[in-house]
Amino acid sequence: MAFWWPLIVLAFAYAICRFLLMLIPPNVPSIDVDASDVLAHGKETEENSFIYIPPRGRSQQSDKKVQCYEPATMKYLGYFPALSTSEVKERVALSRKAQKTWAQSSFKVRRQFLRILLKYIIEHQELICEVSSRDTGKTMVDASLGEIMTTCEKITWLLSEGERWLKPEHRSSGRAMLHKVSRVEFHPLGVIGAIVPWNYPFHNIFNPMLAAVFSGNGIVIKVSEHASWSGCFYFRIIQAALAAVGAPENLVDVITGFAETGEALVSSVDKMIFVGSTAVGKMIMRNAAETLTPVTLELGGKDAFIICEDADVSHVAQVAVRGTLQSSGQNCAGAERFYVHKDIYTAFITQVTKIVKSVSAGPPLTGRYDMGAICLQEHSEHLQSLVNDALDKGAEIAVRGSFGHLGEDAVDQYFPPTVLINVNHNMKIMKEEAFGPIMPIMQFSTDEEVIKLANDSRYALGCAVFSGSQRRAKQIASQIQCGVAAINDFASNYMCQSLPFGGVKDSGFGRFAGIEGLRACCLVKSVVEDRFWPLIKTKIPKPIQAKNAFEFQEALVETLYGLNIWDRLRSLIDVLKFLTDQSSHVSRTRKSH
């Protein structure tokens, strides 16, 4: 016992020291970001105080300007240039030059960059959320959950584990190479390109940027033409944080534009990350093939939301409505196909109806509404066409949410939460990505049936399974073809930033987030070297150069890989004989000379 006491005391002292160090606040400088132009809500100049009427049926590309407006009020916000091919290539070249310097930076400097960003985000949550809300129509709560928390979680994970997963990783050398040391090294790729959507403008910029910069890369991000106003403000935050740690200028860039801008980016970078529709993802893949540029595609989703008869109906109804109709259904490809066991079908619809009647859509900044505006112009018309198709084929509207007090000019920017029943897979609403607050509900009888229904889709991003039996829910989820699965929960995976995120089939391939996403920003290099160099060096064995070389090789293979120890020992004796005979032959040859 006397032997252990010193060790216990040392361990206790170490724990106390670690705890005391945690009490010392880190020395993280504050950054100053000019927000005067985005804080002028309600105080716009006469030039920018009008209601913007977007052109219908034609692209803005010909105007060479990205026009920005609030989808909730149609109030004009300004414009940004649509960059040409040559301008994009110039921006990438500047980032590439800066990256060569940044690649030599220490992880200590990179972590400080992350801490500076984290400090700013925590201190300016309301500003960040308000800018996101104005540009995309989401509510402040939705912005806080989807923009602030996810980004802070990613930063925290990188601070805690990022360096660990980018350091060289030693691997076993196998039986034939026992005298070697093997490892995997992770080097920066160069300049990452990213084309990101409008639905979460803050996080969609920071997500690829954080991984790229922390792994030593530069990055050029094309923001959506529907969220350029917010994206360009968020870029100022990144610039200020980079300047605070002495990073080279142009390491990170945010560009604006349309299809031409995106195409130029794909052909100029060393790795492409795209988040968006399946159709555009296929075009990007074709363009990337010209230069063999690797791509990560996170595309459309039509996630299955499965509710077994032993689930807590009241709880699941709350999760379905609050998580799907209000936030996720409006702003991301969340659960879009609901499968409810026939035994609780009526009870579930009753609960959902009760909740939806209390849900209303309205101006997002007022704080009185559960849903904000639909960001994309004319998208409400597309949503209504999906509902009409379902109604024509036998579906019924179980309940619809209400509108708040809306101005006449903004009515078509909203869509009421809608619950459809008696749906089937012949309806577009069960096949096409809606990206809106529509909940189509279908019955099922057995686990085998619902698994078949869930897999009957060209999309395969994620799923959610609810059951009173955790084991049953896991068994169902394990048989669904998708990249992300939540057990008795919905959309919680993305808050676990140690996990990779992405889908299969028409939902894309490759992963971002987690270890896999971080290392996807790297050149993965295999390295082998002598374990005891220069004492032991690799030489070609003499028997391989002799007449009976193949017989020697046969014995060597069985010695190394034989299925049982006796066969391997017998072959080892043969190998030693070959080596001995060869040595004897060499000795006799030398004597004869």
From TrEMBL:
This is Aldehyde dehydrogenase domain-containing protein. The keyword Oxidoreductase applies. Keywords: Oxidoreductase. Residues 61-527 form the Aldehyde dehydrogenase domain. The active site is at residue 298. It comes from the Eukaryota. Gene3D superfamilies: Aldehyde Dehydrogenase, Chain A, domain 1 (3.40.605.10), Aldehyde Dehydrogenase, Chain A, domain 2 (3.40.309.10). Belongs to the aldehyde dehydrogenase family. InterPro entries: Ald_DH/histidinol_DH (IPR016161), Ald_DH_C (IPR016163), Ald_DH_CS_CYS (IPR016160), Ald_DH_CS_GLU (IPR029510), Ald_DH_N (IPR016162), Aldehyde_DH_dom (IPR015590).
